[in-house]
Amino acid sequence: MIFGAIEAGGTKFVCAVSDENLSLIERISIPTTTPDETMKAVIQFFEGYPEIKAIGIGSFGPIDINPKSDTYGSITSTPKLAWANYAFLDVMKQHFDITYAWTTDVNAAAFGEIKKGAAAGSSSCVYITVGTGIGAGIIIQDKIIEGFSHPEAGHIGIKRHPDDHFEGNCPYHADCLEGMASGPAIGKRYCDSAKILDPTHQAWEIEADYLAQALVAMTLIVSPEKIVLGGGVMKQTQLFPLIRARFKTLLNGYVVTPNLEDYILPCALGDNAGLTGCLLLAIDAYHK
């Protein structure tokens, strides 16, 4: 049996087909331009696989994940204006009458990491991506946690570091987690890309403080078995010991966690986390 995946990102759409064992048959990357251009290429790709059984879609958001909603399956209030209120799932269903799994890109990555990545063997995890934006996917008892909408943990409030006078980069909240700790926030604060800042730069101490605050909040609210960190900023591996140390200080022994070396982890699937999760969600949806 053949299954499909669409990892719909703000810069590119990655589409793939695989068998049930996740052996890739084909994978392509399509630039995210306008819905007409991008979706035409997506549909053409999957038309080459008429035997496909299900497609898992992990999309940039915000998206409508409430099956009772009139706009279920749509991208909603995205700053990518061409995609605002775009009925993504309806368009796919017009072309392919098959089973779908529909969620956010970070939820898909979380599902990939708990099934095949750093959190494999656990029944709960939080996956946080730190890159152009910040988002979190939460898995509890093998289920993606969603309510009337999906978590937007990148926009939680945090305490400002005493040495940080940056005004924040979020157009909605200024100094929320994403506004202070995303890749663009680092670049704007220091007039330098996070990729080229020296590993000993004070930027990483400040970054670790903000991320540790978020991880403490997740620990106290969700108590996951694992916290997995991915995204472009987290390729700065010097962050992990800084985050663990700051996390320990902030938590101050209030609850007993697993050993932090085994609790706060880099993602194991890297840039393939989202695509892997989409394929797994497609397989899961088909069998259910």
Automatic annotation (TrEMBL):
It catalyses: D-fructose + ATP = D-fructose 6-phosphate + ADP + H(+). InterPro entries: ATPase_NBD (IPR043129), Carb_Metab_Reg_Kinase/Isom (IPR051804), ROK (IPR000600), ROK_cs (IPR049874). SUPFAM superfamilies: Actin-like ATPase domain (SSF53067). Keywords: ATP-binding, Carbohydrate metabolism, Kinase, Magnesium, Metal-binding, Nucleotide-binding, Transferase, Zinc. Its cofactor is Mg(2+). Coiled coil: none annotated. Its EC number is 2.7.1.4. PROSITE patterns: ROK. CDD domains: ASKHA_NBD_ROK_BsFRK-like. GO terms for molecular function: ATP binding; fructokinase activity; metal ion binding. Belongs to the ROK (NagC/XylR) family. PANTHER family: FRUCTOKINASE, TRANSCRIPTIONAL REPRESSOR MPRA. This is Fructokinase. It comes from Vagococcus silagei.
